[in-house]
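Worked Example 4.2. Read the sequence first, then its structure tokens.
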Amino acid sequence: MIERTRFFRRVVYGPAPDSCHLWVGALGDDGYGRFWISRGGHQIVVRPHRYALALELDRALEENEVAMHRRCDNPLCVNTGTGDPFLAHVVLATSSESMSDMGRKGRGGGRRWRFGADRAERARRSRAVREAVLKHGWSQQAIEAALYEETQGTLW
């Protein structure tokens, strides 16, 4: 199976172009997705939002380039705007731009995410959202119910 086809089979698109497009494949213990690819005869794992941005840019991301969640801060989101930067949730940034964005949003520096989740809680929320989407498709009600049940809050 072609790598891109395999990738997009694990993405569920939201109801509008500016909705989150959610990764429903493998997740790590940090709440972010994992996608295995082959490069140079070796299997490597990449974060889906970085992979989606590389596809959008039609080039590999450099080590110093960051795929930053600008609009939603949803670790499962892979929406790169498909050619429309105004719709993009995931954008190209430098590390310093990403750190500034984190500071503006009250994240980073050891503090909890703005939605109150540390690494373990973010992973629980991501798993709950993934399971709700796999079971019900894109349903804001199902996603919110999964988040409420797990966390008594919202993810984004």
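Now turn to a second chain, presented in exactly the same format:
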Amino acid sequence: MKILSVSLLCLGLLGATGVSQAAGNCTISLKGDDAMKFDLKTATVSAACSSITVELTHAGKLPAAAMGHNVVISATKDMDAIARDGIKAGVANNYVTKGDARVIAATTLVGGGEKIKVSFPGKKLTAGGDYTFFCSFPGHSMLMKGKLTVTK
């Protein structure tokens, strides 16, 4: 009986560990800098998350007007077009076209020392889909991009 109780307790703890790891899969935390790079080349989130949060910290010193960064999430096939259209949208729109259905989520621009976060429904992503995160400040998406992996 004692062995059964210990076994059930262990199974319960293992199950709780799995839940906490899945819950931790609902946030994408990125740092950008004055060298036009994110600290991550890949990020993983779960499509099972009710809400996914994107956190961006600009670890550089330059202001947003000179070296602003944002994070845009889209299907990989749409990234280049979104970045091109974002240039036309201008700084007043954070280099993201208003109402662009191809944009899954986007933060506003931040400068050195600033932080920003945005949340969006997890149902906007499909497990196994081909997604990219990138900065749409003009010219930045060539270097500041990464693969977003979505698990179940």
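Notes for the reader: The beta strands are 27-32, 42-46, 51-58, 72-75, 103-106, 115-121, 131-134, 145-151. The chain has a mean pLDDT of 88.
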